[in-house]
Amino acid sequence: MPLQPVSPPLTSIPLGEATEPSAANGANSSPHLKVFLSTFLTIFLAELGDKTQLATLLLTAKSHAPWIVFAGAGTALVLTSLIGVWLGSWLAQRISPQTLEKAAGLLLLLISAQLFWEVFHL
After folding, report:
1. At what angle do helices 97-120 and 66-92 cross, to 10 degrees?
2. pLDDT by residue (tens digit) across 52-106?
3. 57 belongs to a structural domain
4. Cα-based torsion angle of the residue sequence 77, 59, 51, 90 in order, rounded to the nearest 10 degrees
């Protein structure tokens, strides 16, 4: 049985190559890397300047213990992400992705409408 070429580990793949099909073996790039990068960028941009980051900033300034605050905030974010992943997996087994997308969009619209109502007292 001939030996099959082995893909290099993810740590040695430059980012530019990771999103394009491999010319060497004709296989597609890692879908896991694409999901990871998409998730990272989405969450990173969503979290910048939000109330969690501001609370972390204030707790650090008040406690003068930045590494302890970092550990606490990091652990909390990991656990809330774990809950989100678990709930998403559970829902994905019961509801189609299109229905989940529409429900999430509708929920965000309703929250936005409620906030708009509260601000402008229509």
Report:
1. 130
2. 999 999 999 999 999 999 999 999 999 999 999 999 899 999 999 899 999 999 9
3. no
4. 20
Please report the pLDDT score of residue 49 as a whole number: 83
pTM score above 0.70: no
Q: Which two tokens stand for residue 69?
A: 């605050």
Examine the domain organization and report whether 81 and 120 are in the same domain: yes
CA atoms of 57 and 6, how far apart (whole Å): 45
Is there a single domain that holds both residue 74 and residue 119?
A: yes
**What domain range is 92 assigned to?**
65-122
69 within 8 A of 59, measured Cβ to Cβ: yes
Secondary structure of the chain in HEC code, one letter for each residue: CCCCCCCCCHHHCCHHHHCCCCCCCCCCCCHHHHHHHHHHHHHHHHHCCCHHHHHHHHHHHHHCCHHHHHHHHHHHHHHHHHHHHHHHHHHHCCCCHHHHHHHHHHHHHHHHHHHHHHHHCC
